[in-house]
Structures are given as structure tokens and as C-alpha cells.
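Hi F.,

I've been meaning to write this up properly since the lab meeting, where we talked about keeping a consistent format for the predictions we share between groups. The idea is simple: the sequence comes first, exactly as it goes in, then the C-alpha cells exactly as they come out, then a line or two of notes. No screenshots and no reformatting. I'm using this chain as the first example so we have something concrete to point to.
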Amino acid sequence: MQEIAQLTESVQRWRGLATRAGETRELLELARAEDDEALLAQLAEDVEALKGELERSEFELLFSGLYDERDALLSIHAGAGGTESQDWAEMLMRMYLRWAEDKGFQTQVLDLSEGEEAGIKSATIEVRGRYAFGYLRAERGVHRLVRLSPFDAAHRRHTSFALVEVIPDIGDDIEVQINPDDLRIDVFRAAGHGGQNVQKNSTAVRITHLPTGIVVSCQNERSQVQNREVAMRVLRARLYDLEQRKREEERARLKGEHVAAGWGNQIRSYVLHPYQMVKDLRTGYETGNTAAVLDGRIDGLIEAYLRAQVSEAQAG
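Output, unedited:
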């Protein structure tokens, strides 16, 4: 029923655009025939509005993946380098939270591990909204930062890395078999900023899937039961994603294609010194407005990747 509702909405939107375009064309012919300057000016604004809506609707056609319409689970992991990389991971978290806010998506930080001095070691964020996964799948991979370090007394240039993982939230729609004997479940006190315990009771939950080594945790909810339910939902999504990636890698191996995974898959460089530039290494898209990108305005980078993916699929 949910899929039918979404398809109905899409059809109605396209039909509505077609109807409005036809009506605008008829009014335009009438305004030209009567030389009505006021109506022509109004219609010019209407045409621009229609053009913007058409471009947005055409862009949504890029979301053709099986789970593109779903919510997303985004995880950020600081790389080697201690405080430098942990600060970079926190900068990325802020970037994605600002981007989601601008998009009108809802976000919830499910788990957060603070750095010792600054930044974060890791974070898992739930992003809710239509096409959340479709957009954010463009961000999977290693993000590299080059800057003058604010933590170096000599103010030398440093390079930091962080890994971004994005998986669709499959919810309860897809059944994933999990043997309870394969799980180790630990409970602990939820930690606040700086590592201090913010609850007297052990409500945070960490689940380890022993066969794969996948570890998920949740400390956002107020009760242990709620945190366990959220952690299990994240674990199901991770296990499903792992199985899907294994199949994709096997298909790529049989085709003789290069399979990049994990930390070897650097996708983007953010250079703040000696010049200002953000460059996506997969598409070649670059911009000098690094401040805007780090403030969440990453649509240009995402769109370039999605369009490149469509072009590759058509060429293949």
C-alpha cells in the first residue's frame, strides 16, 4: 500500500505539471495576442517556477535503485591520526546534519562515541525522509581532509581521513535470519559529551554479531528495551547490506571488474590549505567554496555522482 501511494503521488505530480504547462502555454498565446505586458510578466514567473519543479522531478528519476526511497542509516568513523581525524569526523557529522536539515529530513543520532580531546571516534545517524538513502548512497567511502592543524602547536599541514558508511533502513519489510546464539549483548551507561555518564542506570546497548564481527550500539533512547530494539534494527540492516555487497563483489569479480572496499575507497578530497577546493575523485566534480560544502551544501557533489552512475549504467 505504501508503494502504491508513492507511485500514485508521482503520477499525479507529473500529470499536474503537464496540465499546468498546457494552461500556461494557452495563456501565453493569449497574452501575446492581446499584448498584455502585466500577464506576460506574471507568466514569465510561472514558467520559471514550472521549470524548477520539472528539474526537481527529473532529478528524482535518478533514484532508480531498489531502496533509494527508503530512510538511511549513516555511520562515520574517524581514521588513524587521533584528534585530527576525530575532529574531521565531527566536521563531517555536522555537514550531514546541516544537509539533512536543509532537505527537510528528520535525523536522530543513534550512537555517538566522543574523542578523548576533541571530535568523535564514530557516530551512527538515522536520516528519515523520501529518497534519504538515494541521496546519501553517493557519500559512501573515505573522505580526506588537508588543512593546517588547529591541534598542532607548529601549525603544520595535516591530512586526515574518515570513513562514511550508508545503508538503507530495511525496517521489518525484509526478514533477516539472526541466530540468538550468534549475538553477544552488553549493556552500559549512556555517555554524554566528554565521556561522562549521563544516566545512573545501564540503558545503552551494544550488540556484537560473532560470525561477522559486526558491532552496533545505541544509547539514544531512554530505556534499555528501546535501545536494544533500535540496535537490532541497525544490525539487521547491516547484515542485509553485507550480503548484498558480497553478491555485488562476486558479480564484479566474475566480470573482471576492480572491487574497491573499505578504507581503500577514497572518494573525495577536501583541501583547505594551501588552496581551497573540494573534489570528488569519482566524477571530477570540484568546487572552491569549501565553506559552503562543510556547511551542508553538497547537492552538487551528490547530483554529479548520481548522474555519472546513470550514464555508466546506460553505457554498460
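Notes:
The two ends are 34 Å apart (CA to CA).
Residues 193-200 have pLDDT under 50 and may be disordered.

If this format works for you, I'll send the rest the same way.

G.
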